[in-house]
Amino acid sequence: MAATVIDGKAVAAAVRAEVAGGAVEFEAAAGRRAGLATVLVGDDPASHVYVGSKRKQTEEAGMRSIHHGLQADASPGELLNLVAELAVDDDVDGILVQLPLPDGHDQDQVIERIPAAKDVDGLTVASAGLLAQGRPGLVPCTPQGVVELLRAGGTQVEGAEVAIVGRSILVGRPLASLLVNADATVTMCHSRTRDLAAVCRRADVIVAAAGAPGLVTADMVRPGATVIDVGTNRTDDGLVGDVDFAAVSEVAGAITPVPGGVGPMTIAMLLRNTLDAARARAGVE
Ligand code: NAP
Fold first, then answer.
1. Fewer Cβ in 10 A, N or C end of the chain?
2. Does the pLDDT of residue 270 top 90, yes or no?
């Protein structure tokens, strides 16, 4: 049995189209476009590519991209002041500081300068707390993308056993909260998990977010389970996920590919967060 391949590109395109429609309505109601501020420090080529895509897709969705590029040798104070200015700028609905920051900057301190209302990456302690308590707030983009893909693939989350492999602040932890809030039973695995294969084998849904190529093998997957691969690993064979796609797709019921699965969802959810933040700030439904 070959698994259904969940097409992240198509789902992301649908989310972008929905956001673009909402952006037009927002502009009509608020008299201004929703705005996303991006902050990039230094000249890391991969970060430049990511921020470039975010800016382009923001504009394509009918929202305003406001970009600030700082030199690699910008002082910590300079960056903190910039984020503080954006925090009180009425035209800025969302603030995205591209991570990782160059050495010398305190990432946590910078993130905490972002008010929860503009925290479109969902990385502040305030946003994490709201999510952990099941209260409304802005949710990190990649985990939100995972939930959207589960929905699109027709996987029932309510009551499902989910194994999440990876416990990072960016992916695993917020995803666990999101899924618990959606009534799943979640087991969060990590490098010290005693028997990862056994935990995965009893799961209806496996989400691999470890950054370890080939970690999830066919023998770890229950027949018919849904497997979402967040892993993004650059290898000599190109971009691969954490899942042995060829073998696992013979066992799973549904699976996401890499590339073309979770990856495209992340920016789509950032756009949705920006529009949601703009609506909430402007009091527009
Ligand atoms: P991270 O901060 O390095 O965390 C990795 C997590 O996986 C840790 O909790 C680690 O356990 C666990 N882990 C690593 N190797 C393991 C193993 N062999 N068995 C069990 N657990 C293991 O990584 P991240 O930022 O969450 O990213 C994870 C992956 O997702 C990376 O490949 C990253 O590139 C990708 N990613 C993709 C997107 C996207 O848009 N598609 C977005 C974000 C991340 P410990 O806590 O015990 O160390």
1. C
2. yes
